[in-house]
Design brief:
- Helices cover 17% and strands 25% of the residues.
- It has five helices and 13 strands.
- It has helices at residues 17-21, 59-69, 72-79, 99-103, 185-200, and strands at 11-12, 29-30, 38-45, 90-95, 108-115, 143-146, 149-150, 153-154, 159-162, 169-177, 209-211, 214-218, 221-230.
- Residues 23-180 form the Septum formation-related domain.
- It comes from Paenarthrobacter nicotinovorans (Arthrobacter nicotinovorans).
- It holds the Pfam family Septum_form.
Length: 262
């Protein structure tokens, strides 16, 4: 199997960052339940007028085409992401036929996704990303926040982490520019509550869960990032307990396929 005839759903062991960023990649597929670095979420074709060229386009042209063809919307569909699913540590890359395959007539484009570290370096995983956000093992690719605890208070902000790591709050993909109407914690929680209920798939907050907005400041701009968290109150004078995993319910996959998260 090579980039001349790729298939959606196959996983690959792309070892180095250089291979990940290359314009062609011909490693044989591996089982998605085995250790791998990328997974093909879409196979499409090179658009005109580049597809008519006898000689293979240069790397700049190929990568520009890949950004147009391998979209975050297609990836979210593959993941069975809902509007309220925030993701962490996913990078998209595109692969094209090598020069020989291009000369033989192949115009296939392979869109791959990789789980990455905070520096964007692809990491080995045994997670099958097909419908992953609808399944029980989605924490590894969900966005959570780990806040600092100082002088009896949690920081407004928090470090981005996957929900599989210890955290204080879980993102629900509703980011709102903070204005005077959101100056108080009560107002922020009220604004975020409908998004939290949508994320949880309930009409009222379950016992043990609270709305827990994060405030992210960039320059002079402040954004309220709606989030949810465990409602268990810490012992006075002690830092709240960090948790791992996700509060998201398991859902029927958007794509209608079986959930297989490895």
């Amino acid at each position: 199997m090579d980039t001349a005839s790729p298939e959606t759903g196959l996983c690959h062991a792309v070892v180095s960052p250089e291979e990940f960023d290359a314009s062609s990649e011909a490693s044989p597929p591996v089982s998605c339940t085995e250790r791998h670095t990328t997974q093909t979420f879409l196979v499409t074709t090179m658009p005109e007028p580049l597809a008519r060229q006898e000689s293979r386009p240069n790397q700049q042209q190929l990568k520009a085409a890949g950004k147009r063809l391998c979209t975050s919307e297609d990836l979210r569909t593959y993941l069975s992401a809902s509007d309220r699913d925030g993701t962490f540590g996913l990078a998209v890359t595109s692969y094209f036929p090598d020069r020989d395959a291009w000369a033989a007539g192949s115009r296939a484009v392979r869109c791959d996704v990789a789980v990455t570290d905070q520096d964007g370096t692809p990491q080995e995983t045994g997670l099958d990303l097909k419908d992953a956000l609808a399944g029980p093992h989605s924490a590894a690719v969900r966005l959570c926040y780990r806040q600092e605890y100082k002088d009896g208070l949690l920081s407004d902000d928090g470090t981005d982490v996957p929900c599989s790591e210890p955290h204080t709050a879980e993102d629900i993909s509703a980011w709102i520019a903070q204005d005077a109407s959101l100056a108080t914690p009560v107002a922020r929680e009220a604004r975020c509550l409908p998004y939290a209920l949508e994320f949880l798939g309930t009409q009222k907050l379950p016992a043990g869960v609270t709305v827990h907005p994060i405030i992210r400041t960039v320059g002079t701009a402040r954004t309220v990032r709606c989030a949810v968290a465990s409602a268990r109150q810490p012992v006075p004078g002690e830092a709240p307990e960090l948790v791992t995993g996700t509060l998201a319910p398991v859902r029927v996959p958007v794509t209608g396929g079986a959930v297989n998260n490895g």
